[in-house]
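ARCHIVE CARD
Drawer: 12
Card no.: 0347
Subject: one protein chain, sequence and derived structure
Cross-reference: see card 0346
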Amino acid sequence: MILVQSVYEAVKNLANKDQKGFITPAQFNSFAKIAQLNIYYELFREFVEGKKLRRANVDGDVAFSLVERSKNDLAVFAEKKDLTKSRDGFKKPDNYVMFISCAVKNAAKTPVHILTDESKVNHLLNSTLSAPSSTFPVAMMSDTIEVFPTTITKITLRYYREPVLPVYQSKLVSTPQGGQVEIFQESGSSNFELPYQYEQELVAEIAKMVGINIKDKDLYAGAQYEEQRQ
């Protein structure tokens, strides 16, 4: 987990060397949300790319596997939830992003074969040899989750959820000289959920957005330099 205070201070220092900081917490929070999502979805792209390499037998061994590295980095976002069928099927969790696996909620925890191609599901439903059954259930993943046979009413879904929004909360405190300074307030703040090795990438991503926002070419160049160092 990456500390939001650490990223904010790094971005502020990069944005303004004299420490006065022209990036406000509100601006930072707006950019931080986008930056985290950019990196988060990049992990999914790497996971898909890794699977392509694996199918071609060119993905690396465990320590160097793009698939395994992406899975490890995404593990913190994996969740499991029991779902009950409604009139429109099984409703996806509100924070759902991508499925991992599915099983019937029974004593055997029967695995459910997940498909996203409606034509393949229809082909199975019309088949006399491989039609879905209680021992070979099939799920169609679309806006909702349809499970066949339709007699199945409870499932357990494992999925990747959306990351919690990072928030930098601050407060003003008085100084002995009669002025006020802004300090970090842990209450109301929330850290980034990405693994710690992405901290530099987060700093570079947010600083780059700040540079674009204020049209500061030197700041933008500095952010690109930080990004290229990784």
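Annotation on reverse: The helical segments are 4-15, 25-55, 66-74, 118-125, 199-214, 217-228. Residues 25-55 form the longest helix (31 residues).
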